[in-house]
Design goal:
- The structure is a homodimer.
- By secondary structure, the first copy, chain A, is mostly beta strands.
- In chain A, 4% of the residues lie in helices and 50% in strands.
- In chain A, strands 2, 3, 4, 5, 6, 7, 8 and 9 form an 8-stranded mixed beta sheet that branches.
- The termini of chain A are close together.
Chain lengths: 121, 121
């Protein structure tokens, strides 16, 4: 990962595929990822790690058991490890994620929505 | 750390002291901190960890040996572990930091600018 400043909106302008995260920076063994999302993801959980969501543009809803957390631009939420969640966005939203390298987007659920994280460079 | 959404600008509106970080969320053993900064901090380094700076408002300059990294709102930079750096801001800036819990703001330099991280709740 190059030692360079990252402009989040400039990087997001390059994104074409929704739900395709790209790692743009690393903090020790954690990755900072960007993604554009729209529609419903799948219910899943990460048994071994918390997962930070920060909304850059738009609105993201994180459905949790029994409640929804709605995040607008400039708002963040950390899904605790082991908690089932389903991210969704009615209109396209841009999000930043922070979690350990190797965290799989679909967590313990796996399946056809599982993707490899792209690397910026 | 409460299981709640965090609005970065709303939280920053409560800040009065510059260079006084407040932890607003945790991702495993990492802390997400906010701070308002103005003027020059001190040259220091963190021998054991990288340190992520994301600018929320204003402009932050991170002086490094031989060069400056200038970050505007929506831009981030990760100072690699062991690299001397001096954050500075001509006008007040608001920043988000991510690093392991227990990371000291003045790193190996210590001294009178060392502060305890406040906890949101």
């Amino acid at each position: 990962m190059a030692d360079a400043a990252r402009n989040l909106r400039e990087l997001l302008s390059r994104f074409t595929d929704q739900w395709q995260p790209m790692a743009i920076a690393a903090v020790n063994d954690y990755e900072v990822k960007l993604a554009k999302v729209q529609g419903d993801f799948i219910w899943h959980q990460h048994d071994d790690t918390d997962e930070l969501f920060l909304v850059i543009d738009g609105t993201l809803t994180i459905s949790l058991p029994g409640r929804d957390v709605e995040l607008r631009a400039g708002e963040l939420y950390v899904v605790p490890r082991g908690v089932q969640h389903c991210p969704r966005a009615q209109d396209e939203a841009a999000i930043l994620l922070i979690e350990p390298k190797g965290t799989v987007n679909t967590g313990e659920a796996a399946g056809p929505r599982t993707t490899t994280v792209l690397q910026l460079d």
